[in-house]
Amino acid sequence: MDLTAFLVAWRHTPLRDREVIDALVHPAHVGPSPELTAALTQWPGSYYWSDEPDGRHLILTRPTPGRPRERWGLHVALFALTLLTTTVAGAILSGTIPYDPNPIRLLRGLPAAGLGAWASGLAFSLPLLAILLAHELGHYLTARRYQLDVSPPYFIPVPLFPSFVGTMGAFIRLRTVVSDRRQLFDVGVAGPIAGFVVALPVLVVGLVLGRPLSPDPAFPGMFLRIGQAAAALGDSPLTWALRRLIVGPLSGVRLHPLAFAGWVGMFVTMLNLLPLAQLDGGHLLYAVFPGWHERVARAFLLLTAVMGAWWWGWWVWVLLVLALSRGRLGHPPVLDSYRPLPPSRRRLAWGVLLLFLVTFTPVPFPL
């Protein structure tokens, strides 16, 4: 479809996965006019508007042929393995599969567990994977809406040692450069919001189901029972408020596996919103305040290193972030960094900051 009759000027940028056209629209059609609206319905891709100092722009994108085929077998296999490891973790948390600190003996005993023992673990694994899948699909579907080349989610199964969750989460690979800060913001914010929307009702229902479980005054807050041992869990402002509202002012609240899945979902949301490197929070910070990104990232890196004195996992997280970013805290540039971020995204950024604050857990696993 020829749109040149509605444009004053345009710039065409061919990329490996798509073509991007930055077009200044003629003042007579910025409404947009009915003629331009009809023409845009024939555009074989996606588009959005951008209000800039020289006028109103259309950012048009259309995919190029030859997108690489996905290795769906690998993604399905990783998801199945993660379902397996998290189900075993859930069965141990439910007490239907006995916990053995010796990994060899634990693995040998798994085949002997009955179907009911394994099924009890689904109360933890299914909601947890639903939260992780919602988070990654938020990223994936938003990226695809902008015609960006992005991989399906990779789930990460891990043994129950040293983790008792069974997974280190999931991630997607963005295999192209992002056009502007609006796209970066939208792709980055969609994951935490989608994951939180699923995690919140999971946590609420899990706390309701866990009310009959006997408390243990030895723990000031929440805890998990893992065989004969127990593990304390830290509170965020949100989990503290929900626990007080649903369970009451009790000490030593034992979490139902469903509630623990919701707690993990909140924890994952918080970790991803840390304004560091290639985390979602780092993307959002760069999209809103590109000049402040590296300075804020350095400050938070120092803060997490200090918090490691109360929970050593923060040191592990810092090292992991640095390894994934190859030691660089700066953010990769976008194609058109000059394009302004819409006011609606800046308002949403304040809401995401509030989400980070209410889910922030300084000491996730008190020792």
Based on the model shown, name its key terms.
alpha+beta, 2 domains, four-stranded antiparallel β-sheet, three-stranded mixed β-sheet, 9 strands
Plain-language structure description:
The protein has 367 residues and is an alpha+beta fold. The protein folds into 2 domains: 4-63, no CATH class; 72-359, no CATH class. Helices cover 48% and strands 14% of the residues. The chain contains 12 helices and 9 strands. It has helices at 34-40, 72-94, 103-109, 115-120, 122-145, 181-209, 237-246, 257-272, 280-288, 293-307, 313-324, 343-359; strands spanning 7-14, 18-25, 46-52, 55-63, 154-157, 167-171, 222-226, 229-233, 253-254. The protein has a 4-stranded antiparallel beta sheet with strand order 1-2-4-3, with no helix packed on it. Strands 8-7-9 form a 3-stranded mixed beta sheet. Strands 5-6 form a two-stranded antiparallel sheet. A hairpin with a 2-residue loop joins strand 7 and strand 8. Helix 5 runs parallel beside helix 8 and helix 6 (181-209) packs across helix 9. The longest helix has 29 residues, at 181-209. The N and C termini lie far apart (64 Å). The mean pLDDT is 88.
